[in-house]
Automatic annotation (TrEMBL), chains A, B:
This protein's name: PLP-dependent aminotransferase family protein
Transmembrane segments: none
InterPro entries for this protein: Aminotransferase_I/II_large (IPR004839), Class-I_PLP-dep_aminotransf (IPR050859), PyrdxlP-dep_Trfase (IPR015424), PyrdxlP-dep_Trfase_major (IPR015421), PyrdxlP-dep_Trfase_small (IPR015422)
Top-level taxonomy: Bacteria, Pseudomonadati, Pseudomonadota, Betaproteobacteria, Burkholderiales
Aminotransferase class I/classII large domain span: 64-387
Length: 410, 410
């Protein structure tokens, strides 16, 4: 570091996001990007939002523009609590809801309050990259739990807890996980909670995608099964718009004051105007009217991606069609490396996120994540066709010269 | 902590804000609060803001509501850089400007990148409480620099730097400091920078109030004198509205990438819609039209407070009339304790912030901070009259019974 600056030790853990750098690269117009996790902008309820901003700035401009409570706007906290009671968390009340500057900030606050350097955090395999980034500055040791199509396996959590004195929590996305798209069944939820309770392992339940189901809502959250031991995070980014930067967390009572103080230190409070606008939209029943169309749209896009994958992907590629959320998760045929193939894919005009970025231990070379919510079904089909051609070429080259690096192909 | 939760060590440093708790208490309608640092809501440019929100949501709704770059909205970064060049920082360019979720987040990001547990941070005496709160989770050791009516004394910085191997930076508010209201002269700025350069001590220059001058703009920022060694933070909260939650920082090139990554981990990006609205307002020249009236208003309020203090405060109370900003700083007659007197003051219907909260070492018992920007001149006069009566009563009681605690009085 150039004098006079000396960096904090944790700054070594602040490294560029693979996803963000990719997003920049995939902004080139000739590239069809399946990489980003951007909600379809067509789902933004622009007119209702414009009307709501206008309304709040006419009705309560001074309060909306002034400094406000760190906890968040009272009516919005009530609305979040009521929605959570409706999802089975009988104990949910506004006094335990904290409004955050996006769900990312929720993850950051949780890390600050729970994670010491060298303490252990259990994560799924794969796990959400943004969470790894949010937690990393607090310098925990990440341990990836063996996982299957439903998420973390209870036996893996049990074994880790038995062997790890300083296991601070397990971080889980039970609903349509980013990146894998998988959904934890009610039985798996019960089994995970039983282990966590027996072993005294707190749960950090991250649920940005729960409302984006196709055919049936997901089972009740972990926080409904074990309210005292579960910290639940949610977001308005996927159901309204990311640009508002509003999320929330529901914290067990003993944690709430520390999270609140961390919030105050971090940014005093989230934008009051934006909070009042979201509250007005919820009050007006926007989500009930709006979400069915979003779900229908995303289901159609997922079907288009599934059909395109069946048509264009080489044999030996494996995936599960998700029941909601935003992502497909692919396992490539043996020998292919998603990160090594990315330059070829970009050259062919398609972008994705290599799966290794989502593995706490850097494994997962043969996996990759595809988002189905940003592009139209037609463009999804074209993007997947391009991806299929790249993979086919790589397999052909690999068959011809089994020792060649796939990166050198095409 | 209730099982199963174990807190991180840094959570012990996350404690309630005296100012915030006071604000709650002073919300009672019968209390005239000189405590808060709330800009006068009458200064919010509500109609232009409403029009700008409407405009952005008509012209670029999808981009404004989508995920956006962590660095901030490009045109807004350009506008900040241009304004800083106008203030004498010839090197200021958009690529070194980071938009933050209020200036509080800027302080938080700086702490994450620069402060290790046990490392030393020099602060002024008194210093900004919100900065102490933002820095505390990173567990630095705060050392208060001996200061006078212009801020930190260069000799104090020199002596501390000579004696402290792990001095990471000095945190300074040269313009109308919170809480003291003092302004650092050009000569003092040059002297501080000379010491900092000679000793290799980076400067964190926090400037939320620089635009709120009464008769003349403040001297050029420290960042103009030593761009490579100074990290400058600013805010739109005091010139537009706090509820937008937008600030910025200008970082030396080698620090910028780490601050950007800390930002990304903290909340991905600041609200894009709000950024576009501020950019549109700046583009439209709102500040040039708007700020003269804000300055005029605050000057009138400061004059009213000065007059009321002269009229109502007991002899032996000392203050300096500020040349801008939002605060008067009072030193009470010997023997009075501002924190101990606060309950009497609240009972008499006036609120202030005891000065000890602004001292890194908890000293400053005889000092207090008064804000002059929230109340009208008439209400300022009434509030100061109430304060004067409380102080007079305490002095009378102290004279009658020199050993009695002032808190027991009235």
């Amino acid at each position: 570091m150039t004098p006079p600056w000396t960096l904090a030790r944790r700054a070594a853990r602040l490294n560029p996001s693979v996803i963000r750098d990719l997003l920049k690269c995939s902004e080139r117009p000739e590239i069809l990007s399946l990489a980003g996790g951007l909600p379809a902008p067509e789902t933004f309820a622009v007119e209702p939002m414009r009307a709501a901003f206008d309304h709040v700035l006419r009705e309560a401009p001074l309060a909306a523009l002034q400094y406000a409570a760190s906890e968040g706007h009272g009516p919005l906290r009530e609305q979040v609590a009521a929605a959570l009671r409706g999802r089975g968390i009988a104990e949910a009340c506004a006094s335990r809801v904290l409004i955050t500057t996006g769900s990312q900030q929720g993850l950051d606050l949780v890390a600050r309050v729970l994670l010491d350097p060298g303490s252990t955090l259990a994560v799924e395999t794969p796990t959400y990259l943004g969470a790894l980034q949010a937690f990393s500055p607090c310098e925990p040791r990440f341990v990836g739990l063996a996982s299957d199509g439903q998420g973390a396996r209870p036996q893996a959590l049990d074994a880790l807890a038995a062997a790890t004195p300083d296991l601070r929590a397990a971080y889980l996305q039970p609903n349509f996980q980013n990146p894998s798209g998988r959904l934890m069944t009610a039985e798996r939820r019960a089994a995970i909670v039983a282990v966590a309770q027996a072993r005294g392992v707190p749960l950090i339940e991250d649920d940005p995608y729960g409302e984006l189901w196709f055919d049936a809502p997901p089972p009740a959250p972990l926080a409904a099964l074990w309210p005292a031991g579960t910290l639940l995070l949610g977001s308005f980014s996927k159901v309204l718009a990311p640009g508002l930067r509003l999320g929330w967390l529901l914290a067990p009572a003993p944690l709430y004051p520390k999270l609140l103080q961390a919030k105050q230190a971090a940014d005093l409070h989230s934008p009051g105007l934006n909070q009042r606008v979201v509250s007005a939209l919820l009050d007006d029943g926007l989500l009930e009217r709006h979400l069915p169309a979003v779900r229908e749209r995303y289901r159609g896009q997922a079907e288009a991606m599934d059909a395109a994958l069946r048509r264009h992907l080489p044999p030996g590629t494996d995936w599960q069609r998700p029941a909601g959320g935003m992502f497909f998760w692919l396992r490539l045929p043996a020998g292919l490396d998603a990160a090594a193939l990315l330059p070829s894919a970009l050259a062919a005009g398609v972008a994705y996120v290599p799966g290794s970025a989502f593995h706490a231990d850097g494994s997962g070379a043969a996996t990759l994540r595809l988002s189905f919510v940003t592009l139209s079904p037609e463009r999804i089909a074209e993007a997947v066709a391009r991806l299929g051609a790249v993979l086919m070429a790589a397999m052909t080259a690999m068959a011809a010269s089994p020792t060649a690096s796939p990166a050198a192909v095409s």
